[in-house]
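Re: [help] complex structure
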Amino acid sequence: MGKVYVFDHPLIQHKLTYIRDKETGTKEFRELVDEVASLMAFEITRELPLQEVEVETPVGPAKAKTLAGKKLGLVPILRAGLGMVDGILKLIPAAKVGHVGLYRDPETLQPVEYYVKLPKDVEERELIVIDPMLATGGSAVEAIHSVKKRGARNIKLMCLVAAPEGVEEMQKAHPDVDIYLAAMDEKLNEKGYIVPGLGDAGDRLFGTK
Ligand code: PRP
Ligand code: URA
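Output below.
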C-alpha cells in the first residue's frame, strides 16, 4: 500500500494557512502556492541519490557530492497543477514536464481526460504527478492510470490538501504510489469539495471566479 507523508515543516504550514484564507487574493494565492511547492520539492527530494566527486576549492582538493543524475519528470494535472510547477522547477530545473488535462464533471464528479503529453523517455523517469487537491481521488487515479498506460513505472503524487476519501481511492487503485501532502483534511462535502480545504484551486489560482 502506498505510504502517505504529510510535510509538517513550519514554513509549509504557515503558508498553507494563508492559502486557505478566503481573503487571500489571486496574486498572493499564486505566490504562496509557488512557495509551498518549492518547500515541498525540498522535502520530497530528500532521498535523491548522490555521487562522490572531487572539486578544487581555493584551499585545495575536496571530496564532495553531487546529485547522481536521476531523471525526474513533473506531471501537473491541468489546470490547477500548473500552479505548483515553477516552484518545483526552481529546485529541480533539469526535470522534464509532461501534462495531463482532466476536469471533474460537476454533476458526476467523474474525471474527463482532454489532453496528455509526456516526456518521450517517461519509462526511465521518476515522475511526480502534481495537483493541489486530492478530493474524491478520481482525477489523480485517472491521471496516474494515464501515465502508467504510456510506460511510467516510478511515480509519486504531490498535493497540497487531501481528503481521506481521496487518499483511500488512490491507495486502492495505485498501491505502488506514495502520496506527499501539506495537509490531510477532515472530509468531503456533498459537492465533493474538501472540508475545510481551500475552495476551488483552479479558480483561485487563475482568478476565474
Ligand atoms: C480540481 C483539482 C483536481 C480535482 C480534484 O480540478 O485541481 O484536479 O479537482 O478532485 P477529485 O479528487 O475529486 O478528482 P478541476 O476538475 O476543478 O479542474 P481545473 O483544475 O481545471 O479547475
Ligand atoms: N477541487 C478543488 O479545486 N477543490 C476541492 O475542494 C475539491 C476539488
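The radius of gyration is 18 Å.
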